[in-house]
Amino acid sequence: MQKLKSGFIIKSLLQILAVVFAIPALGQSSTETWNDQQFKLDILPHQMNYPWEITYGPDDSLWITETKGYVITKMHPGNGGYRSLKDLNSFKKYNPSTVGIGPQGGLMGMALHPQLLSGKPYVYVAMVYDYLPNTGTPNNSSCGTGMCYYRTMVLRFTYNTATKSLSTKADTLIANLPGSNDHNSGRLAIGPAPNYYVFYTIGDMGAGQFNNASRTNNAQDTTVYEGKVLRFNSEPDSDADDVTDPYNQWIPNDNPFASPSSGNRLAIYSYGHRNAQGLVWAKVNGVDKLYSSEHGDKSDDEVNDIQMGHNYGWPKVAGMPDNNYSSLDAYPNNNKLANKNINYREDTFAVNHDLTRPLFVLFNAAASNIKADGTNIYTWQTVAPSSIDYYGSGIIPGWKNSLLVTSLKYGMYRLKLKTAGDFVDSTITPNLVDTLPYLHGYRMRDLAIAPTGDTLFFIADNTGNTSGPTGGFDGSGSSNTTLGGGKVIRLVYLTTLPKKDPDPFKPFQESFTKIYPNPASSYLNVQTKPGIKKPLLIQLFDMNGRRIVETTTSQDNITLDVSKVAAGMYFLKVSNGYGALVTTDKVVIN
């Protein structure tokens, strides 16, 4: 009887654990190779409702926000066990099913205080919480066909290390921030000691495009919280309560801009941003640096080195100030930014207004190559950067001092930094110069890096397109299925393969494509396996990311005329009819 009693107790404990911390069977696994390095790829099985933020916590757990579920989930990084840590639906003051178009992002960014387990048990989250009524100014009477107005707030919860739960109530760092169905940004990051400031990205609300075409773009207005990086105290300071400014205690007294009415400091830290969904602090060669990744329009996605008080140009300049957007030239598709004519030179505007140039652009497009509105978004020279992280470990060879940029179109890019972190290094990554692609075919929303340095964790959108309002709760504009959608993708480094001279092309049986002759002089044949979704998009890029040749075909075989292409090394990209990348191959033109 005693033995039965013990067995019953053990069985009961296991049943309780299964309820508190669900442990699913591990998902599919494969070995993948990118840039001569092998990785083990697992897709963990737990299905989430549009995960938006993933953070590796000091408790060796993955902390994840679910943007449409308004839930914070914790997951074991090894066995994939999970539990709901906090349901935030009670903080939401609107019903998603009753609004015209849902916000782009619901529960968005999350940041853990660096001293979470040692005296500062704070968890910061950003969420869209309210929908403006159909009357008043502004209002949502035209949401569905026109502009949509929401409200966003940043909250601070307290984590109970004993019960491993978040507090019922939260402190409000700021509320009534503008919100939209497009370009809400929403990323949070905490700065270094001793101040541990909280940084938050807020987009330009999609002003000047799609439903928000007639909305004023305020990214250059240093009195409006749109198109900015904001900075807050992680703990309230001693400023007196102010009825007209109830969040004054959360705003640092040395922030660069002040309210013209009250004289109090504003939360604005930098301005001139379009939609910076990536934000990370990094210690580079002993110096603390804040990096962002930012969505461009039809080209010129940006990676920026964020500095206090600086202007990053949008919507007056896109990417580098190289005049690729201008109504002063003869090209038809580059005349406007945010629905306003660019009747000036970008380089002159940048000098006159002391703009800060991007650290890097993914990818710079010549004026003649900028696509018309309404064209296939996968032909635009953008990667749709959704987040950014810094890899400082020496575990994966060649990766130390790199920025990792996730993409809603092409998985992830690794950008190797110069030693000081102020430039991307174009000299020491010969395979693909400075942009090394990984996980193409995945719509990656965010990533986290394990402290061991050998494992990366990604989250993928459940579904989605890459341009326009994709946050609608009704799923409008977001019907495309995605690889690993709504799940955690785990990538574990295995080994670096020995270097060898590449073959002219892979055997046809081992590849989707056959490219020959390589090297080429006057023509290049591209042969694909039958059955790949058409039309195929064939693109040839030079080593600076400039597109040299582009064509589409509904055939399995095509011959490209490269007789007028300058001698050198190029990269040929083939995408299928779904817009997913089929292959990237190095090509030499003699």
Count of DSSP E strands? 35
Distance between the termini: 85 Å
What is the correct CATH architecture of the largest domain? 6 Propeller
Shape from CA axes?
globular
Tell me about this structure:
- The strands form nine sheets. A five-stranded antiparallel sheet has the order 1-2-28-27-26, with no helix packed on it. Strands 7, 8, 9, 10 and 11 form a five-stranded antiparallel sheet that branches.
- It has two domains: 465 residues, Neuraminidase, CATH 2.120.10; 82 residues, Immunoglobulin-like, CATH 2.60.40.
- Strand 16 and strand 17 form a beta hairpin.
- By secondary structure, the chain is mostly beta strands.
- The protein starts with a helix and ends with a strand.
- InterPro entries: Glc/Sorbosone_DH, Secre_tail.
- It comes from Pinibacter aurantiacus.
- Keywords: Signal.
